[in-house]
């Protein structure tokens, strides 16, 4: 259900991207009530000067390893669930590939159940409701 | 009103992209109550390993032709309208350029009418209301 | 709080991109109640045929300088505030780098306060509430 659009500066290895991908998904599974196989992500790697961020607003200091993780989720979660997800996320990304927690930004949007079609022209979340 | 952000793997021809563009827009016109000239789309073509998806979650099997179509719409639609749109979309994309229906994922978000400015620094949907 | 994802065709200079970035942020600060250091933006520069737009729908005529500014905001604003923001935005972008107001499209989405984590695995907007 979640679709994660991840934006970072160009220059990371395939292994680094794969580790970020795994960390994001594992945090969703561990703390955001997401099934293991419900994994959909896009990574956008931008040229210098195309990812712009304040170094210190509400956290940081941010570095050139800054990552924005924009997640579209399929239903709301409790505030405590969201907080647990953020915490787990920086924990996992810190372990592998070693992203500093200061460099991780998340913004979640929530769509309705009938606003999703995973495949086959069907609204699976409605059929499944 | 809708803005469609389309994400797929790199390697498709200009003709393929144009056909996907046309199919998405035609499905919006046919089944989502969108005017013919209300066409705004961005295509993001990603390198291998930058578009990550489960092959079988809620559909599939997905292939490397997998496409994520993220649509921001200007007002909610009925569930039946959404379902008709998904169905029409895979029908049209299947005809041209020949995308398998298993490879089409859609997620819709809905913004308020005053959250849109199409041009000229004006909120046209409010003025028009 | 706002995260702005900006999409335009490839071919602009670093100075042009920087001026668009500054103009967007200044308009948010001037008219959208955004703190000066709350600046987070990503610029996506697309190849020809990958940014598709109608030349005349609800405004225009649009040119190849067309820019889509998709903003995720942290709380709703009044309609009048949104209108003032759009107006200020085209004013500033018109001054520098000289984008025609016909070429500026904006769509705003609004997320909940606990849907943001700016850094450090924390939900700063909740803690700060």
Secondary structure: elements and pairs:
3 copies of one chain form a homotrimer.
Chain A: E1 3-9, H1 14-31, E2 40-46, E3 51-53, E4 67-73, H2 79-95, E5 104-110, E6 116-117, H3 124-127
Parallel strand pairs in A: 1-2, 4-5
Antiparallel strand pairs in A: 1-4
Helix pairs in contact in A: 1-2
What can you tell me about this protein's structure?
Three copies of one chain form a homotrimer. Chain A has 129 residues and is of the alpha/beta class. Chain A has one domain: Macrophage Migration Inhibitory Factor. The first copy, chain A, has three helices and six strands. Chain A has helices at residues 14-31, 79-95, 124-127; strands spanning 3-9, 40-46, 51-53, 67-73, 104-110, 116-117. The first copy, chain A, has a four-stranded mixed beta sheet, covered by helices on one side. In chain A, helix 1 packs antiparallel against helix 2 (79-95). The longest helix of chain A has 18 residues, at 14-31. The first copy, chain A, is globular. The two termini of chain A are 14 Å apart. At the A-B interface, helix 1, strand 2 and strand 6 of A face strand 3, helix 2 and strand 5 of B. Strand 6 (116-117) of chain B pairs antiparallel with strand 5 (104-110) of chain C.
């Amino acid at each position: 259900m979640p679709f994660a659009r991840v934006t970072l500066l160009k220059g990371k290895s395939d292994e680094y991207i794969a580790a970020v991908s795994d960390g994001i998904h594992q945090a969703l599974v561990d703390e955001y009530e997401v099934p293991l196989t419900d994994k959909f992500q896009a990574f956008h790697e931008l040229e210098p000067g195309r990812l712009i961020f304040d170094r210190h607003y509400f956290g940081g200091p941010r570095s050139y390893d800054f990552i924005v993780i924009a997640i579209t989720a399929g239903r709301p979660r409790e505030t405590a669930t969201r907080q647990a997800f953020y915490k787990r996320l920086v924990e996992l990304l810190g372990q592998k590939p070693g992203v500093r927690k200061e460099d991780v930004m998340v913004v979640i949007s929530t769509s309705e159940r009938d606003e999703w079609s995973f495949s086959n022209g069907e609204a699976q979340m409605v059929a499944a409701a």
